[in-house]
Amino acid sequence: MRIHQLTTRALPLAAALLMGAAARGHAQGTLLYTFTGVVDRDVQITMHRAQLSTDNAGLNTAGSSHLRLMTPLPAEEGALAVVLDAGRGTADVVQQPNATNDYTGIVRIRDKSSGADTYRASVYWSGLSGGEVITNPGRPAPFSSDIGMLHWTGNVDGTIDLIIRGNTISYHTLGGKSTSNAMSTFKGDPLPRAVSHVHVELNSGRGTVGVAQQPNAENGYTAIVRIWDPQPGYGFYDFNVHWF
Question: Which of 76, 104, 127 is the last residue of a domain?
């Protein structure tokens, strides 16, 4: 395992200002770091505060990767998203930061083809206090510009991703058990293949529901809604996902 202890205080002022500008305003959230390297098989990148480390399962990765810190990972509720800028394989978030893991996030880059390839990836963080979630059941929100909506109910024990593309839904269990008794209903237009914004309205649930990925051209206009259920056993959730 290679550990990269990084801090923005060591940067010249001009470079820090450029990084700060790059870290703001992206549809995925705040830019935390970028990865550039040669991968054969896979590499895992772990982030805790301003510390980054790599765990290489590949053949050619040792000594050939570069991590560039932009912003330390906050110690608060939020979600990571990874954008693969170059490379023939995949990049996924395998552990979201939360209180139980001391706000440590893990991203995995996998190269499934023979030989090695050069990868570039950017990892972003979005806080759940930034307007993506409404946590006041019974208080209606103005969604007059909606062009469509998904109503979802179900039982969750752990962390579940709802992956929405067009009028289809798939599930990815990040931790705990698979969802049970899930029911979903689309109203209005399906999630469009166009620039749109997804917003979650939580009606009932003991945990947190947030947008982990906004739809855009880079991800094929696929939205990901993440449910965190912090208590043992299944909890019931009822929420709406609006797009406009």
Answer: 127
